[in-house]
Amino acid sequence: MDWGLKNRLARIIKSYDRRGVMLAVDHGYFLGPTERLEDPQKTIAPLLPYADSLMLTRGVLRTSVDANYPIPVVLRVSGGASIISKDLSNEKITTSIKDAIRVNATALALSIFVGASYEHESLVSLGNLVNEGEEYGIPILAVTAVGKELEKRDARYLGLACRIAAEFGAHLVKTYYCENFEKVVDSCPVPVIIAGGPKLATELDALKLTYDAIQAGAAGVDMGRNIWQSDHPVAMIKAVKAIVHQNLKVKEAQELFNKLKLEPKSDKSAKPAKLTKPTKTKSKSTKAASPA
Fold first, then answer.
1. Contact, 112 vs 142, CB < 8 A?
2. CA atoms of 78 and 209, how far apart (whole Å)
3. Cα–Cα–Cα angle for 109, 113, 114, nearest 5°?
């Protein structure tokens, strides 16, 4: 593995504990203006300081994220179907490797649809994307998408999909948590992170999901709706991050969340600081020396 590729991976999965917290805000590419993601910039800005990386499309990156803020970007490069289409698996690569480099992407993400109508096309796209990514030292995240068939989220199916993704050369795999999740992790030779999925009934449910996945061997989370659809998104991402990086138990994380959500303006005050130009100071001698 080349130095550049290793370095980019280390920005997503931190080297000190081999874990990472990715904030997913790419939902609009097939769901449109999702609830509480109608204004991406407003949703993303307060959460940036607490995410290890950000997963999104090039459109939202260019329009809604401060270019001065140094956060690793996992760029979604696949798409082509919407939630109202007949088959969500009908995706293709929609963003070129050159444009990914222009926006300084740290990694590239695409969905694969194992067992779906367009399984072949999505897997071939993964192979081609890995080829391009390796050429430029950019890691690839394969998302084991299930479309509208949520019943596929069991260890047998997810283990199959994750292993296939790794066999095709994916450097990271994103999948769903399920019963016997450790079997999925053990059979996949690359780091596995879990998707948060649709908003759960309570924040406690999402914290338990995070804890159980980490205990089963997950390398982190790529969570979206269970963070920014919470009434207290900053408190939620802090609690999730504490489980991932500080090994907090569910009860401890819930107590942290309950404490943080009571802090004044906890969801509004934590905005990433904008970088400012250094103040120029005048030199004692402002005139250039005269030529001899």
1. yes
2. 27
3. 125
DSSP for 131-183? HHHHHHT--EEEEE--TT-GGG-SHHHHHHHHHHHHHTT-SEEEE---TTHHH
Structure tokens given for 196 = 């948060």
Phi and psi angles of residue 194, each rounded to the nearest 5 degrees, phi first:
-100, 145
Q: How many domains does the chain have?
A: 1
Separation CA 94–CA 96 (nearest Å): 7
Q: CA angle, corner 234, sides to 77 and 60, nearest 5?
A: 25
3-state secondary structure of 88: coil
Main-chain phi, psi angles of 115, to 5 degrees: 85, 0
Predicted confidence (pLDDT) per residue in 202-236, tens digit: 999 999 999 999 999 999 999 999 999 999 999 99
Query: Cα(first)–Cα(last) distance of the chain, in Å?
Result: 56
The CATH number of the domain holding residue 82 is 3.20.20.70
**C-alpha angle 30-75-176 in degrees, rounded to nearest 5:** 65
Rounded to two decimals, the pTM is 0.88
User: What does DSSP say about strands 73-76 and 107-112: parallel, antiparallel, or unpaired?
Assistant: parallel
Q: Is residue 73 part of a domain?
A: yes
Residue 2 lies in a domain: no
Give domain status of residue 92, yes or no.
Answer: yes
Active site residues: 174
Is 203 domain-assigned?
Answer: yes
Q: Which amino acid is at 32?
A: G
Q: In which domain, by residue range, is 150 found?
A: 12-260
Cα–Cα dist 81/30, whole Å: 6
